[in-house]
Amino acid sequence: MFSPILALGSFETLLTALIWGVWVVLNLWIWQKSKATGNLLMLIGAGVLALVDLLLFLLIFFSGMGTLMLIGLVLLTAGFFLSVKPMVAAQIAALQAKAKHIGHKDGGTGGGTGTPPPAAH
């Protein structure tokens, strides 16, 4: 029996294209509200990856597909980095402030005597 799905490409390739399409829609919604560069880069990167997978599903190949996928992945990764960088920086600053506060609590010496140990000869 003839199956149109098998005549085009694999089901997994189509499913991957649809998943990247969901990433495009989610990042579009977020970008419309925030206008954040990170989400715009993830939107473009996911769009490129969705397009490549859709072309693979349609059995359309060309020599630059690997490069196109690499560009999509780089854009997606850069966008993710830019979108989480402020949160990570805030958490690091909070930890540093907490450590500084704890250091002041015990006299600022970190629990030591304040003098270095004698040098070993």
Walk me through what this model shows.
- The mean pLDDT is 85.
- The longest helix has 41 residues, at 65-105.
- This protein is 75% helix and 0% strand.
- The chain has one domain.
- The chain is elongated.
- It is built from four helices and no strands.
- It has helices at 4-8, 11-34, 37-57, 65-105.
- By secondary structure, the chain is mainly α.
Number of domains: 1
Mean pLDDT: 85
Please give the number of β-strands: 0
Shape: elongated
Give the biggest beta sheet: none
Alpha carbon gap, first and last residue = 87 Å
Oligomer: single chain
What percentage of the residues does DSSP assign to strands (E)?
under 5%
Helix content: over 70%
Secondary-structure element series? HHHH
Give the helix tally. 4
User: Which spans of ≥5 residues are poorly predicted at pLDDT below 50?
Assistant: none
Rg, Cα atoms, Å: 25 Å
SS-based structural class? mainly alpha
Summarize the structure.
The protein has 121 residues and is mostly helical. The chain has helices at residues 4-8, 11-34, 37-57, 65-105.
Annotate the secondary structure layout:
Layout: H1 4-8, H2 11-34, H3 37-57, H4 65-105
Helix pairs in contact: 2-3, 3-4
